[in-house]
Design a protein that fits this description.
By secondary structure, the protein is α/β, with parallel strands linked by helices. A 9-stranded mixed β-sheet has the order 1-13-11-5-7-9-10-4-12. A two-stranded antiparallel ribbon has the order 2-3. It is globular and about 65 Å long. Bound molecules: oxo(2-sulfanylphenyl)acetic acid (23J) and manganese (II) ion (MN). The site of manganese (II) ion has 7 residues, from strand 4 and strand 10.
């Protein structure tokens, strides 16, 4: 009898299982959330060369980077929000690593979002998805496929207006429902944050952060290539940097998916 991992390696080698990159490129132009004053801004990535095959290092190239923990494709830990402040194992260095591998449930709302950038997922939408695909299992990521990652450039991606940014997310009641009534690891989104662009005006403000992190759940943001995943059956590998007391971190998010047949 072969071990399941032997079969996995075989499937990766023969193409039955594909590795899908769910990660945005991370550079100085990577869009970062723009919070209104008086809130402190998170800096974009900046980079300084330490040496590049020169006097500072004749045979080596390396850089110093500076960036907010929540830059680009990144992980949100429960300690990021005040509601998760006192939970055990709530930061990037203490979350049990088993949580960094989980299955994906992908809810496709790209058609709705194409018509309405402020689209909010409701618990009814989740229940309708479950009627088709089965109940979202414990330990699964709920990935919200909005098509938002196709928006190129900072303006289109952040979609700012006089009254703040406009981008899709979760309704207040849906965030509460997912946090309380489903055993998910967390939610993953294509937008800059797990909350909708207008969520600062919701009651409570930023309900996805508030309820999910209060329940010890996680977030993944600025994902790409969700359109390459099946509704169920993909495995997500998302391990943040082991930053001591980190509130989150940029990371490489990979999915293992069955090859399209
Ligand atoms: C701080 C305040 C509001 C939000 C965020 C951070 C994020 O989206 C984030 O990256 O965690 S909405
Ligand atoms: Mn974040």
């Amino acid at each position: 009898m072969t071990h399941i991992l032997t079969d996995l390696i075989k499937a990766l080698t023969n193409g039955e299982v594909r590795v899908v990159d769910l990660t945005q490129p991370l550079g100085p132009d990577t869009p970062v959330i723009d919070l209104p004053p008086p809130f402190a801004p998170s800096p974009p990535l900046s980079k300084e060369t330490i040496s590049e095959y020169d006097d500072g290092g004749p045979a080596w190239y390396w850089n110093t980077i500076r960036l907010g923990e929540h830059t680009g494709t990144h992980f949100d830990a429960p300690v990021h929000w005040i509601t998760g402040r006192d939970l055990p194992d709530n930061s990037t260095d203490t979350i049990p690593v088993a949580a960094f591998v989980g299955q994906a449930c992908v809810i496709d709302v790209s058609a709705q979002v194409a018509k309405n950038p402020d689209f909010l997922l409701s618990s009814e939408d989740v229940l309708a998805w479950e009627a088709e695909h089965g109940r979202i299992p414990d330990g699964a990521w709920l990935l919200l496929r909005t098509g938002w990652s196709k928006r190129q450039g900072r303006e289109a991606f952040l979609n700012p207006a006089e009254d703040g940014p406009h981008s899709p997310g979760f309704a207040v009641e849906c965030a509460r429902f997912l946090a309380r009534d489903r055993g998910i690891l967390g939610v993953g989104v294509e937008t800059v944050g797990t909350d909708a662009g207008q969520a600062g005006t919701f009651d409570p403000p930023f309900p996805t952060h508030t309820f999910m992190h209060g329940a010890g759940k996680f977030g993944l943001t600025s994902l790409i290539n969700l359109d390459q995943l099946p509704s169920t059956g993909a495995v997500v590998i998302a391990a943040p940097l082991k930053i001591v007391r980190g509130s989150g971190s940029p990371l490489r998010v990979l999915a293992l998916a069955p090859a399209a047949r």
